[in-house]
Amino acid sequence: MSSKLLRGTFILTLGTILSKVLGLLYVIPFYDIVGDQGTALYQYSYIPYTIFISIATAGVPLAVSKFISKYNALEEYAVSRRLFKSGLVVMAISGIISFVILYFGAPALAEIIINDKDFVSSVADVTTVIRAVSFALIVVPFMSLIRGFFQGHQSMGPSAVSTVVEQIVRIVFLLAGAFIVYKMMDGSLTSAVSVATFAAFIGAIGSLFVLLWYWYKRKPHLDELLTHDKATVDISLPDIYKEIIIYAVPFVLVGIANPLFQFIDLLTFNRAMATIGLAKQSETALSILNYQTHKLVIIPVSLATAFSLTLVPSITKAFVENDRTSLNRQLNQTFQVMLYLTLPAVVGLSLLAEPAYTLFYKHDPLGTQVLVTYAPVAILFALYSVTAAILQGINEQRFTLLSLLVGLLVKLSLNIPLIKVMETQGAVLATALGYTVAILINMFVIKAFAHYRFRLVLRRGLLIVLFTGLMLAATAVTYNLVTLVLSPETKMQSVIILVICATVGAGVYFYLGMRSRLVYFLFGERVDKIKGKLRLPM
Prior knowledge:
- The chain is an all-alpha fold and 538 residues long.
- It has a domain at 1-235.
- The chain has 21 helices and no strands.
- It starts with a helix and ends with a helix.
């Protein structure tokens, strides 16, 4: 891999991580402004928006960048430019269509979500916030294509910078707008949350300005490439889009999996809670499930999955070359890295649920209870993403749709009955069961088509479970000792508790990994490089 590509990948990864960190930290001041009811309204709009935007854009930057990179390597620069120009029109049209559907479909969607007069929010409230966020759909698809164009030219800076700028502009507008409307102007909570959701449009505009600036700066160089065009390939636009769609669909399915599971909760949770006489508490509980705890649960998933997926290109290469030894080695490493990074994080989050929830939101027994049970489900989120990516690597992405649909069907079938019996915990269990079924299907396909045996992963998995258990024991002892003098009911003391317990837990876990040399099997020479930088004994 060239140093330019390595540098570009690093920049893009850094931008993505920074964006995700910002997307997590803003929830603390936002929750302080709007509270439980405000975050409930917010997630009513943001989950449908996430699904729409995922369908419209998930995979587009990667698909377009792959296509452009392919034809640039052949010095067919005119083909890339033709895709870019027509793609801008297509994305603009798809964005407008998505906006129209969500904007005018908002009342019907709100009627499904809020189907009982006993709820705190009204149909009009939900309609307003959904319509406010829908405007972002006009800009984001258009913007995603420009990012893909730059990435196809191995220029990752524009995508990284625009992603971070989008997040910063969105968060500043969201927090400032909600605070001014609700706290200073004494406006309604619905108005404040509408401003907060409209921030997605403002952030997208900020990102678009960055991308257009990069385009203006680099256009002379891009135009110069056209003068070296070989003009030996004649490919029609329908063929171009067919190639892009085939590549993008698996990313769309993986991208919308989690929002679709949340969307089922959005459509069924309030209804189920109302039937057992808990309509008044329903919206707060749904906000805790779909917004508050979900924001925390998704952290370890994002980092571990991102690291694991860097191995997928090598899986594809081994599969195409029919190198079974290399393929098995890459699959073993992918699963083990994901387990090694995710399992202790989600178990630790479950143990430290009370101070973690207090730090980000407030001390709440229900929030703590949901986080305790929801955090371990994150291991399933990560496993689904990794197995779905492997299916693409072995060219069996068609089964991704099957596993997702079956998983969603399980969730949809069980959600209302389980909520009626177990309330919020029932929704968590239904999600876990749905993901489990989807993962089992993916693993069966991997075993059948890649002839992969899970023996080594199971053996190493048991070792990782053992290390996680020892880490959990050390952290639990530390937590019980610390909470003798500090209370997880206040934010400042929760910070101290989390820092102390996380340090002990991480120290024990990585010490065991080093002593057993497990980290060397998983990360190879990267370990020595990190130790060298930290000046630790080799």
